[in-house]
Write a structure and sequence with these properties.
This protein has 211 residues and is α/β, with parallel strands linked by helices. 45% of the residues lie in helices and 27% in strands. It is built from 5 helices and 7 strands, in the order ααβββαβαβαββ. The longest helix is centred in the last third of the chain and has 43 residues.
């Protein structure tokens, strides 16, 4: 899949990605069927300095019954533990599938005790927050992390494509306005007042083609 993407064979990479995800999902189900029937959510994470990809497998009665995914912009400089805390709070703020008895994560959140209490309040019952280190649950966590990594690769390819489109648009703007360089930062101001009083001002910034 990665070789196809690097070779700009995006359609072939997409087909291989879908096959890979299907195999991993099936393998995840097989792994969990080896355990006693349990209800749990498993979090996987892949990140760089700008964003993070999150995958969640929802396991009910020992079987993977659903998955969810999200991307997180890193607007702050967070440690992996702080990022995990933020993700758990956001995901379960209004989780449709509810909070299961167990939540498996790749790293414990910064304030694990507070997060556990938060999850217990949402579930109205006990919740165990754990990092599995061996056995089928560890294998399932690795599967979810692989899925997060694959999703992150696809997202970065899309992000690169968007960046190239913005670069072309900025170069076009440079030509039309006769600028010596592409306008990487544009600031627009508006100042208003009421007959000389009650002054207000606003500023809109476009940086690298984005608001």
């Amino acid at each position: 899949m990665h070789e196809a993407a690097n070779g700009l064979e995006f359609e072939r990479a997409s087909v291989l990605r879908d096959k890979l995800e299907a195999v991993r999902a099936a393998d995840a189900v097989r792994q969990m069927e080896l355990e006693h029937p349990e209800d749990l959510d498993v979090f996987g994470l892949a990140e760089d300095e700008l964003e993070a990809a999150v995958q969640v497998f929802h396991v009910r009665s020992g079987k993977v019954v659903g998955r969810s995914a999200l991307f997180v912009d890193k607007v702050e400089d967070l440690t992996p533990a702080q990022l995990m805390e933020r993700i758990l709070v956001d995901v379960y703020a209004d989780a449709v599938s509810g909070v299961p008895r167990q939540v498996l994560v790749p790293t414990m959140p910064a304030d694990a005790e507070a997060v556990t209490e938060y999850l217990m309040d949402h579930r109205n019952g006990p919740v165990a927050l754990r990092v599995p280190v061996r056995g089928p649950k560890r294998a399932l966590l690795q599967t979810v992390e692989h899925n997060a990594g694959d999703a992150f690769v696809r997202h970065r390819l899309h992000r690169t494509s968007d960046h190239n489109s913005r670069a072309r648009a900025l170069e076009s703007l440079q030509r039309e306005l006769g600028l010596p360089d592409a306008p990487l930062r544009i600031e627009c101001y508006d100042m208003s007042h009421l007959q000389g009083t009650d002054y207000v001002g606003s500023m809109v910034v476009f940086e690298d083609g984005l608001p």
